[in-house]
Amino acid sequence: KREIENIEVEVVRWRNRIKYLSHRCSRIHGDMHPFGNVRFRNDNSILTLDRSREEFGEPADDITSMSINYIFFSVWRHGRLTHPFKELFKLFLERYLDKTGDYEIFKVMAPFYAFRGLVVAHPIYYPDLESDKRRKILKFIINVLNEERFEIDRLEDYLESPN
Question: Which is the most buried residue in 18, 50, 79, 157, by most CB within 10 A?
Answer without folding.
Answer: 18
